[in-house]
């Protein structure tokens, strides 16, 4: 057997390189960081997160350079069709078959909770951007997920408090008749009463409802200054449209929406929504940094981003930075690293991740502009005030999360 | 045997050959089912089997008794919620007890719904079942134990008979497969029994069945209850597989989806619903992760329209026709 020196040297060189790269990348599971984007791509929440959120994720990965710690970043995406079993099934498949490291997006709260239970069992990591339920980081908290953009606590508290402070102290509540609506109504009532206001009446409507006329008439008859909408999605849209048709705002009453997004206001138009008060986690025309990012997004998608889509970008960047800094995609290590680093970017101000997985950051009270004030298709909100991060979210001492009380 | 001493008539021969063919087909399918988890992803297969059982239960009613229920989601959800609630609130309970309880709850609900609904026929029957199912939907959205919009989560899979750890996907698969085979056997037995023959007679000509002296209402009610119970069994098993129960199961979309599966596969054929469920679930899973993801509902809708327009007896129904025509 001929065995010349050059071959031997070659073999040794290859072996050493393999060994070296092997040790350098041993921290990254199977030589890639894989991110799965799960959201409603075809249903009610399509415009809120949907394909736009996936594009925001793509932007984040491009801006990061397409690789982290020397390994490529791969993207998977799926439509959860707002169904918990489809969501849980998809994520189980991603973990078992594709070794996905991070799951992002997620809107319907049932999907988010189902996914976090799967990830807790499989020890994965999720960043939820789209869901509203504050229970996600309260009774359903796990060490395997972070809730990024907003939840119902600041929406109810922020809006209610600000409205009462501005003098709107008699309220009428229009509530969707199920657990989510009841919780929102409870939160608002508490805040209104604490701040010296009064809830003079209310009515509960079945979920979902398309004809709001009788409820709006009751609201008009109540004589309350503010009509609070403790509902979401198409119910809110229908209620606002009916209120507009019945001239509710013209007759001196004001609507306070609790769960309204930029795409809803855009779809309904300023005529119907003007003067509506709401709390948001982010608005594209907030300042220079947000405008700059939003315009880049607009060029790719053709719509201005919602706070959820901006949150997908922001959270993915924060995750990738943490993976780079930690040198591994091990969920616990990355989760700890993410919590160590404050979140400060175009999206989040004074942001940090708490033990319960809640990313707290400044929230904003906004008022929808009148058609006369608006200068463009997407010039929809005026930011009235900032709710500081440490006051916006549910305080940790009220938390039912096991991770906090350990 | 006595029969062998006589010369068998051609019709007997044909029937025996048909039975042999069916036996061979069952055997092949059984082997495929046993080998499947080594080829495909077990969780996906379990989902297919759960929906297949649900569709088979629905088909028993539509295909063999001619009753179009538009409220079968209520039974799927009841099975799921009862099992999920029992198993998560009493972790010591073995999974088989949970599943039996879920099935029983659906049976009882089926008895109540059936007793009301079978008094009407055709579109009125469908509307009554839809209305009753919507009532269940509103009950589940309000009831505290279901978790409302958030759903019921973290249902433990537990140990089957206190022995087999179901947290492994493979063990779970064989359990689900066994449940499916039992459910399918019940349907097969029902369809090929004298009871099934009477159901078919009622489907074809109800007044005639009445005039022959059959208590038509009792037959219909029994078929409804069996179908509801099996739908509940499917829901209960599904809850154990995914470890959750959610409102999606109770929504009328689910009642629509099972009609789609059954019609696509072939209504009134034994294997149609299995084929239909497999097709719909695979399409949903595959398309959801493809660039066509936004179009899942549109594509399924288009397939449904094509199916209804051009091959009304469904995939298995059409195959059956071809076989009958050419290989008699």
Task: Describe what this molecule looks like in 3D.
- The complex is a heterodimer of chains A (406) and B (328).
- Chain A has helices at residues 5-25, 50-64, 84-98, 109-122, 152-165, 179-194, 213-222, 233-245, 262-268, 270-273, 288-301, 307-326, 331-340, 389-392, and strands at 33-39, 67-68, 71-79, 102-105, 126-128, 145-147, 170-176, 198-205, 226-230, 254-257, 277-280, 352-353, 359-360, 363-368, 381-387.
- By secondary structure, chain A is of the alpha/beta class.
- Chain A folds into two domains: 4-150 and 286-356, Response regulator (Rossmann fold, 3-Layer(aba) Sandwich); 154-280 and 363-387, 3-Layer(aba) Sandwich (Rossmann fold), CATH 3.40.50.2300.
- Chain B is mainly alpha-helical and 328 residues long.
- In chain B, strand 1 (159-160) and strand 2 form a beta hairpin.
- Chain B is globular, with a radius of gyration of 20 Å.
- Classes of the chains: A alpha/beta (406), B mainly alpha (328).
Percent helix among the residues of chain B? over 70%
* Helix/strand order of chain A, N-terminal first: HEHEEHEHEEHEHEHEHEHHEHHHEEEEH
Subunit organisation of the chains: heterodimer
Overall spatial form of chain A: globular
Topology (elements, then pairings):
The complex is a heterodimer of chains A (about 400) and B (about 325).
Chain A (H helix, E strand, L loop, with lengths): L4 H21 L7 E7 L10 H15 L2 E2 L2 E9 L4 H15 L3 E4 L3 H14 L3 E3 L16 E3 L4 H14 L4 E7 L2 H16 L3 E8 L7 H10 L3 E5 L2 H13 L8 E4 L4 H7 L1 H4 L3 E4 L7 H14 L5 H20 L4 H10 L11 E2 L5 E2 L2 E6 L12 E7 L1 H4 L14
Parallel strand pairs in A: 1-3, 1-4, 4-5, 5-6, 7-8, 7-9, 9-10
Antiparallel strand pairs in A: 2-3, 11-14, 12-13, 14-15
Chain B lengths: L1 H4 L4 H26 L6 H24 L7 H17 L5 H23 L4 H21 L16 E2 L3 E2 L3 H23 L2 H11 L1 H6 L4 H27 L9 H14 L6 H17 L7 H15 L3 H13 L2
Helix pairs in contact in B: 3-7, 3-10, 3-11, 3-12, 4-5, 4-10, 5-6, 5-10, 7-10, 8-10, 11-12, 11-14
Key phrases:
heterodimer; A: about 400 residues; alpha/beta; Rossmann fold; 2 domains; 6-stranded mixed beta sheet; 4-stranded parallel beta sheet; 14 helices; 15 strands; about 20% strand; globular; B: about 325 residues; mainly alpha; two-stranded antiparallel ribbon; 2 strands; about 75% helix
